[in-house]
Amino acid sequence: MMKICFDWQAIHKGLLSEQENRSTAASVCAAEIREDIFRQGYRSEHLVGRAPEICQQYGLGRETFLEATRLLENWGVARMRRGVNGGLIVANSMRTDPTERLTRYFCLRGLSSAQVREARAVLSLALRHCRESRPAGGSSFDNEFWRLVAHPQPFTTQQRMSLSEAGHPWERCLQIFANAIDAVEEVRDGSAELLFDGAAGSESLARHTVQLLAMQIAGLDREQRSLTRSEASITARLGVSRQVTRQAMRILQDEGLLECRRGRNGGVNILSQHPASVLRLLNGYYRKAGLAREDFSPLLSVIGRANRVLCAMRASESDFARLAALTNEQKQDDPVTHIERIKLEWEIIDNPALSLLEQSLATYRAGLGGEKKSTGFGNLQRIADCSIDHVSAMRARNHLLADRLLQDIESEVAAITRTF
User: Fold this and answer.
1) Mean pLDDT across the chain, nearest whole number?
2) What is the DSSP string of 366-396?
3) By C-alpha distance, which of 293, 337, 326, 302 is closest to 6?
4) Please, are residues 214 and 252 in contact by the beta-carbon 8 Å criterion?
5) Distance of CA 147 to CAs 144, 150, 385, 400, 403, Å?
6) What residues have CB less than 8 Å from 84, skipping those under 6 apart?
7) 10 Å Cβ neighbour count for 103?
């Protein structure tokens, strides 16, 4: 038996994927305006000021002001109103339900029809598993799961979830994902519009450019996404002015899809990880829903199992080599060292809905630990051996063996957490 320390604050920070702060003048000024609106307690439709007044008050140029207003619209804080009584006005109260934000994020990430079907199948599995994990549940889920993973395409059944109206906290958490992916399909077939917070119904060239640029990003493979692009090349490809391109890129940067850098080494990078702002939004919703450890543990388990199968199906030989190297580098007494491998697996899965669900639940679990450090004791050597064998089984596409090894690892970790 060996000692292991769970530094929950460090784990939470590692999972949150906070990007290095490279604030632009527009984002800094937008944040200042937002804080002033909150501090003054302005109500919906209150006139914050006209464009010349705001530019003078905050020391903004016209282009920076336009970028700042786009960010404020995207945050659902304020919007520009045209006409005699026009200016920057406070938007309607933001919704606490994150479904609309998730819908927009999944659309901008380019969630495909195949990914929607896959996500629905896994969400339905999770629903059944969580219901079975209740005290009165049975134990037939493992057999069903193993029959599924024996199939060449295990998660392709087109199923809609049937949830009770009141629902347990874990049901409500699944429901927002189910609602969001349903809404993605409605946007795709034209029966619904892709909305930006606080900007419903207000079309603009910048918003149209956002969608065009997001579609281009979604069409790239993993290798192409890793390349740095210049603002000029993006502008030429889109066929719009540089000012419109910058406004669109600022919105996508705020959504967590891009990172824009100025200067000699500047350029535009596509971010593969989910943004911290979306994870915080979901974690706040989970907390409000009252999601407790006994609720999310079975949910996180089945999502993790399904995602590992998808990872094994889609990983290239170079991916497996990297996974094996990261597994060998892990320190079993320090869970923080496991995060890099998990993030690589989420990237390989290539399904924004499923990777975000797992990452948000894992982040929420770490957040519940707060600033404390939990110390436990367990068979760390067995965990290390099973982890290496797990990668080997994934590499051999032996999904059944890989899943059983993953469950062995989870059992050992559960035994450790019971010693806290």
Assistant:
1) 84
2) HHHTTT-EEEEEE-HHHHHHHHHHHHHHHHT
3) 337
4) yes
5) 5, 5, 26, 9, 12
6) none
7) 23
SS3 of 209, please? helix
Is the separation of the CB atoms in 98 and 281 below 8 Å?
A: yes
Please state the pTM of the whole predicted model: 0.79
In 3D, which of 292, 281, 302, 354 has the Cα closest to residue 99? 281
Q: Is the pLDDT of residue 198 over 60?
A: no
What string of H, E and C letters represents the secondary structure of 135-187?
Answer: CCCCCCHHHHHHHHHCCCCCCCCCCCCCCCCCCCHHHHHHHHHHHHHHHHHHH
Say which residue the tokens 């057999």 belong to: 143
Helix 339-349 and helix 293-314, axial crossing angle in degrees, nearest 10: 60
Q: Give the C-alpha separation, 395 to 349, whole Å.
A: 14
Q: What whole-number distance in Å separates Cα of residue 368 and Cα of residue 417? A: 14
| Secondary structure letter of residue 229 according to DSSP | B
Q: Tell which phi-psi region holds residue 362, choosing left (phi > 0), alpha (psi between -120 and 50) or beta.
A: alpha
CA distance 10 to 268: 29
Residue labelled with tokens 């490279």: 22
SS3 208: helix
For residues 119 and 181, the answer to whether their CB atoms sit within 8 Å is yes
Residue of 88, 93, 83, 96 whose CA lies nearest to 43:
93
- What is the 3-state secondary structure of 278-343? HHHHHHHHHHHHCCCHHHHHHHHHHHHHHHHHHHHHHCCHHHHHHHHHHHHHCCCCCHHHHHHHHH
Residue count (the chain): 420
Confidence (pLDDT) at 85: 79
- Establish how many alpha carbons lie within 13 A of residue 316's alpha carbon, considering only the half-sphere containing its beta carbon: 7
- The yes-or-no verdict on residue 136 having pLDDT over 90 is no
